Amino acid sequence: MNAHDQLLAQFGQALGLPLVFDANGQCLLMLDEKLMISIRYGDVQWTFYCMLAQQPLAEKHYWQACLQLNLQLAEQGKGCICYEPQADALLYLTFIPMPASALQLREFLGDLADTYQALLSHVETEMTGQTSSINTINLSAGGQ
């Protein structure tokens, strides 16, 4: 068992979940039956991929809103919103340098979940055709 596997197992114990990386170095995690997170490890960082939308809308206002959110995330160092063409999916992507402990991961995941929930709520609002003010979204608690 390598250091990544050990750390993920300890993190899973803290959450009360049996977490393991698969053969591709990925672990899927579902929070609150709504927040789907893929965790992947690399040599120097762990990357978190969060599903925001399948088959995102093509309307101009939708993508403008996503890019405004992306700007906020970039300015705050909290990751980015990206489009994955093979899955036709809008993702929130963020990372943490190689975590030192399960506690550090747990704190990071708490902040990540807050940011992810705020982004997901906004994207869902945009997909229903309703408008919401980007300025009312609180991203200060989440991400890195």
TrEMBL record:
One of its GO terms (biological process) is protein secretion by the type III secretion system. It holds the Pfam family CesT. InterPro entries: SicP (IPR044530), Tir_chaperone (IPR010261). Coiled coil: none annotated. NCBIfam families: PRK15329.1. This is Tir chaperone family protein. It comes from Shewanella baltica (strain OS155 / ATCC BAA-1091).
